[in-house]
Design goal:
12 strands, alpha/beta, Rossmann fold, 246 residues, SAM-dependent_MTases_sf, Class I SAM-dependent methyltransferase, single chain, seven-stranded mixed sheet
């Protein structure tokens, strides 16, 4: 079994996924944020089978159509499932280690890209998939607006974005259940994270948890039709966005 890497790196996720792939089944990241206590994130979570996935993710896979772009694909569990169903899938991730893992696991089309990489616009997709709270990849509300503009260049006519996100306003409830926000501060769903795996400390990054109403506002402003397909008990929802003129 390969040892855990010990050098400083900006890709703790990639190292954890690679270690898990090579047999270190207890590989676990530590996730730090500015809204909650540190949390463990087992690498095994990224290697789930279909029936280990939450219902919203399985529902999203059922809604896929045509050529699929899997954004923030991690270890490729969604891409592999879609491949097994006959879909053409391109899986991308900003983690170089995650890209290596997906290639090793048999994802046929894999690329190392940021979600706003201009190189992606050379091709068109019928479905853009953003699961595991994947809408968070946009980082901030400004990032959401920019991504929605960018995504129109990626979508084929009639194409769709299938994404999950969560409302985390419950983190700001006082003892009486009233919401306490700093109305002059950033949107409460804009969270800053860092990840650590062993000695691997990643750079801080922004992640967006968009409440359904604000997501709808931004999507409609960008010219998308919005269809909420489901919600779970953790206040995570699945949404389909379709370009209104698509």
């Amino acid at each position: 079994m390969p040892p855990v890497a010990t050098s400083v790196s900006a890709d703790p996720l990639g190292y954890a996924l690679l270690d898990y792939l090579h047999g270190r089944l207890d590989a676990t990241l530590t996730v730090f944020s500015d809204v909650a206590e540190e949390e463990p994130l087992p690498a095994s979570y990224f290697f789930r089978s279909l029936w280990e996935m939450p219902e919203l993710e399985r529902q999203a896979l059922e809604q896929c159509q045509g050529r699929v772009l899997d954004l923030g694909a991690g270890a490729g569990c969604h891409a592999l499932e879609l491949q097994s169903r006959g879909f053409e899938v391109k899986a991308i991730d900003a983690s170089a280690g995650a890209v290596q893992v997906m290639q090793a696991r048999g994802v046929r089309q894999v690329a190392h890209h940021d979600l706003r990489d201009a190189a992606l616009t050379h091709e068109k997709y019928d479905t853009i998939l953003m699961l595991m709270n994947g809408l968070g990849l946009v980082g901030t509300l400004d990032g959401l607006a920019a991504f929605l503009r960018h995504a129109r260049q990626l979508l084929a006519p009639g194409g769709q974005i299938l994404a999950t996100s969560s409302d985390i306003s419950y983190l700001y409830e006082d003892e009486d259940g009233a919401l306490v926000f700093d109305l002059n501060g950033p949107y409460h769903g804009e969270v800053t994270y860092t990840m650590q795996y062993g000695a691997e400390q990643g750079a801080a990054f922004h992640w967006l948890f968009a409440g359904a109403s604000i997501l709808q506002d931004y999507a409609q402003e960008a010219g998308y039709e919005v269809d909420f397909l489901g919600e779970d008990e953790q206040q995570q929802y699945l949404v389909r966005l379709t370009a209104a003129n698509g």
